[in-house]
Design brief:
Layout (H helix, E strand, L loop, with lengths): L1 H25 L11 H17 L2 H18 L5 H39 L13 E4 L2 E11 L5 E11 L2 E4 L5 E2 L1
Antiparallel strand pairs: 1-4, 2-3, 4-5
Helix pairs in contact: 1-2, 1-3, 2-3
The protein binds zinc ion (ZN).
C-alpha cells in the first residue's frame, strides 16, 4: 500500500517535469521555447509518459531532459538565464534522486526484514543482516561504597550496580535491538 503511494508520488513528480519539458518544446522561439509543432510535442509527451509508467520513472525523465537540452543547444534557443535556471533545477533533481534511491533502499530492507521475521529468523531491523549476536544480561558494578567504623577501618562494602545486556547487537551496523 505504502509502496503504491510512493510510486504514485514519484509518477506525479515525473509528470510535472515531463509536462514542463514539453512546454519548453512547444513554446515559440524567442520566448524561451524550442518552437516545435504542438502536435509532435504531444506525441513525444505521450511517449515519455508511457515510458515512465511502463518502464522506468528515472530513465524517462533523464532521457527527456537530455533530449530537450540537446534540442535547446542545437537550435540555439536556450538563453543564459535558462542555463542558470537549469543548474539549480539539476541540483534539485540530484537531491530528489538521492531521496528516491534511499527510499527504495529502505523499502528493500523493510521487505527483507519482514520476510525473515516470517521465516522465524532474527535479523537486524536497520540493515536486515543476520550477522548478529546476543548480549547476555549481566550485573555491572559502577562503584563500591565502603563503610567505616569510628577508627576509620573498613567494615563493609556496598556495591552499586546496574544491569546490562539482554539485547541483540548487529555485527554489520552496530544497531542494538530487543
Ligand atoms: Zn544492522
Amino acid at each position: 500500500m505504502i509502496a503504491k503511494i510512493k510510486r504514485g508520488f514519484w509518477i506525479f513528480m515525473g509528470t510535472i517535469w515531463i509536462t514542463f519539458l514539453a512546454t519548453i518544446m512547444a513554446s515559440e522561439k524567442g520566448t524561451g521555447g524550442i518552437g516545435i509543432n504542438g502536435f509532435i510535442t504531444l506525441i513525444v509527451w505521450i511517449a515519455f509518459m508511457y515510458l515512465m509508467i511502463k518502464v522506468s520513472i528515472v530513465l524517462s525523465n533523464v532521457a527527456f531532459t537530455i533530449l530537450v537540452l540537446v534540442l535547446s543547444f542545437t537550435t540555439g534557443s536556450i538563453t543564459e538565464k535558462q542555463i542558470q535556471g537549469l543548474v539549480y533545477i539539476g541540483l534539485f533533481c540530484v537531491g530528489l534522486y538521492l531521496v528516491y534511491l534511499y527510499s527504495n533502499y529502505r523499502d528493500k530492507i523493510n521487505k527483507k526484514v519482514a520476510e525473515q521475521h516470517k521465516a522465524g529468523i532474527t535479523c537486524c531491523p536497520k540493515c536486515a543482516s543476520t550477522r548478529i549476536h546476543y548480549v547476555q544480561k549481566r550485573e555491572v558494578t559502577d562503584e563500591i561504597n565502603y563503610k567505616y567504623d569510628e577508627d576509620g577501618d573498613i567494615v563493609g562494602a556496598i556495591p552499586s550496580t546496574h544491569t546490562e545486556g539482554g539485547y541483540y547487537e548487529c555485527d554489520k551496523c552496530g544497531k542494538i535491538f530487543k
